[in-house]
Amino acid sequence: MLGWSIVYVFLLLSVLLPPFNLLTVSLIMVPVTVMYVKLDTKRFFLHYAASLAVVYVLSSLLFAGWVGALLMSVSLFFLPPVIQMGNLYKKRAAARSVLTIGTITLLGELLLSLVVSQLLGLQPVPRIQQFMLESMNTVPPELQAMLPVDKELLLSMMVKMLPVYMIGFSLFYVVVSHWLARKVLVRSGESIPAFKPIKDWKLPRSFVWIYLVTLLLDMFVRDITSVVFSIVWNLLPILTVAFALQAISFLFYVAYANRWNKTLPVAGIIVLLIFPPAFFLFSLLGVFDVAFPIRERLNRK
User: Which of 33, 24, 25 lies closest to 4, judged by CA?
Assistant: First the structure.
């Protein structure tokens, strides 16, 4: 576990080294998760505390004391989801449970951070809005003129999507951490359940009705100051992405049922990556896959 402690120290210090931190910060939960599962609680916290001490000393010597405190706070922020996921790994819980609990824990921390920041008078939302405005002002005027709505209105709508950003952030970190940590733990002899194959993924049928109601509300609700608009504005992209992934699952199933190679689903993934407007069309395919027994008919054939 000494090697994983060294890796963790490196990952924490890399937070200060752009552009490498764009990649390394995504892996920050992996070493701690591996150590938590492989070690008993006492030994884990000894390794963890020693790693933080090394990070604090090095960052204080190279930069300043507040930098070391900042890195320690980043580490402590990601510790609760690591502990939750690690406990589930030790219980051999299903991968879906690990993903759900880990995401909810990290999302809860983000919400708590916003509330505490607001109570301390730090005003996090206006600061986020100011950051978005400064980023938008760096765009060339020619591109700003092509915006479909007024810049201030667009900024207001983007701020309203803060819950989507928080959910996406939490889900991204937990998925990446689970995928990599599980690979490491399985190679070390641990028995960690994996996700179902993509072809077997299936959303609950109730999601179809929620999606349809959200689409209808999006067509008729125009008051951007209303609570309903905020709910729709956050719920619609989440459901669209979920049903687009359901469509990819369906394409994998079609390839499997017809004994084709994976060219069709891989092409679908590439289309989504290079042409984001296709998400809506794919989401409709996902709705049909969930709402109607298409797979059963393929099985009969």
Answer: 33
Please report how the helices 95-119 and 162-187 are oriented relative to each other, as an axis angle in degrees rounded to 10: 140
Mention every residue, 6+ apart, whose C-beta is less than 8 A from residue 14: 20, 21, 24, 25
Per residue in 227-249, pLDDT (tens digit) is: 888 899 899 999 999 999 999 99
Amino acid at 279: F
- What is the chain's length? 301
From CA 189, how far away is CA 192, in angstroms rounded? 9
In the predicted model, what is the mean pLDDT of residues 113-126?
Answer: 84
Mean pLDDT score of the chain: 88
Tokens, residue 108? 């809860």
Evaluate the omega torsion of the peptide bond into residue 19 and state whether it is cis, within 30 degrees of 0. yes
Q: In this prediction, what percent of the chain has a pLDDT beyond 90?
A: 51
Ranges of H-type helices in the chain: 2-13, 21-24, 30-38, 41-62, 65-77, 79-90, 95-119, 124-137, 141-144, 151-160, 162-187, 206-220, 227-257, 263-274, 278-291, 294-300
The whole-number pLDDT of residue 60 equals 85
CB contact at 8 A, 161 and 237:
yes
- Burial classification of residue 35, based on how many CB atoms lie within 10 Å of its CB (0-12 exposed, 13-18 middle, 19 or more buried): buried
Residue with the two structure tokens 């690591």: 82
**pTM score, whole prediction:** 0.86
Tens of pLDDT, residue by residue over 217-230, are 988 887 777 888 88
* Domain regions of the chain by residue span: 197-301
Q: How far is CA 273 from CA 171, 197, 219, 269, in A?
A: 18, 21, 26, 6
